[in-house]
Each structure stands twice: as structure tokens, then as C-alpha cells.
Amino acid sequence: MRVWLAAAALLAACSPGAGESASPASQPPAAVHPASGLKVIPLTVSNAGTTHRFSVEVARTGEEQAQGLMFRTQMGADEGMLFPFEPPRQVSFWMKNTVIPLDIIFVGTNGRVSNIAANAEPYSLVPRSSAGPVEAVLELNGGRAEELGIVPGTRVEW
User: Fold this and answer.
1) Which long-range contacts (CB under 8 A, 24 or more apart) does 83-88 make?
2) What is the Cα 134 distance to its own chain's centre?
3) pLDDT per position as a tens digit, 88-129
4) Sign of CA dihedral 25, 29, 31, 33
5) Engineered SS bond to 129: which of 38, 52, 70, 92, CB 3.0-4.6 Å?
């Protein structure tokens, strides 16, 4: 009987503690960006045999999308913001109250870049429009798309 109790105690010590679970549902909470509080997810762009990985904030709601990257003074080289649209639609973006230059990358319904508004000028009210319906817009630091060879047809996955 003592051997069985000792074995049971040892198994209990190796099991998840109170409030813990070994199931996949107990994964740590999604990362959030410290400035925006938005969920951060991985995103890849692939073209001509190369893939580049980003960590992007996801602006899902109308309010989050209206705020976007306004008033931000910096963004990491491998960071960005994703604006998903359901259902896909024609969209226009401007740079009102946006301090840093951005590449505005329009992702078509096929998951590929349809067009890019490169190095959009800070504070500009000039609309930058998609070339057709898009499922998302990806904003990166200005000049980053050219630097990485992101062009129309580049695959974007998140």
C-alpha cells in the first residue's frame, strides 16, 4: 500500500498543478503590443524563393483600424500592422497623424500583393487606394518593401 501511495504522490508532483492544464487550450495568451494593446501575430512574405518573417499587430475593429499607427514614433524593422477586411473590399488609406513614413501594401483576395503605396509621406491626407478588392492591408516601415523585394505578386500569409 505504501508503494502505491508513494507512486501516486510522485505522479501528482509531475502533473500540472491546480489551475493548470496539459491540453493545447492552455497555451499562453496571445502576445500583445505594448503601445497599442493589439494582438501580435506572425506574418510571412514570400517571393522568388525567399521568405521574410514579421511580427504584426492586428487592427480588426473599425476603431482599431481608424487609429492604425497614428502618433507612433518608431516601429521595428520586422514589425508592422495588419488590417484584415471581411468581406474583402476596395480601400483607401491616408497618413493623417502618422509620424513615420510607411509602405502600405494591399493584399488581394488571392493572398498576394496587388499594389503598394511606397514611402507614404507622414501627415499626408492624400488617399492611397487598393487596385481592387483586398482581404488585408499590411503597413511596414517606409522603404522596407523595396529593401526586401516585396512587389505585386508576393505571397502574404498570416
Assistant:
1) 83/59, 83/136, 83/137, 83/138, 83/139, 84/58, 84/60, 84/135, 84/136, 85/134, 85/135, 85/136, 85/137, 86/135, 88/133, 88/134, 88/135
2) 16
3) 999 999 999 999 999 999 999 999 999 999 999 999 999 999
4) positive
5) 92
Strand (E) or helix (H) holding 41: strand 40-47
Which of 73, 59, 71, 148 is CA-nearest to residue 103?
Answer: 148
pTM score of the predicted model: 0.81
Kindly report the backbone phi and psi dihedral angles of residue 11, in degrees, each rounded to the nearest multiple of 5, phi listed first. Answer: -60, -40
Count Cβ neighbours within 10 Å for each residue of 35-48 and write b for 16 or more, e otherwise.
Answer: ebebbbeebebebe
Question: For residue 98, what are the CA distances in angstroms to 68, 95, 113, 141, 144?
Answer: 9, 5, 23, 12, 17
- pLDDT tens, position by position, 32-79: 999 899 999 999 999 999 999 999 999 999 999 999 999 999 999 999
CA distance 68 to 66: 6
- Report residue 25 as a C-alpha cell: 487550450
Among candidates 95, 97, 84, which has minimal Cα distance to 118? 95
* Contact by Cβ (8 Å): 127, 87: no
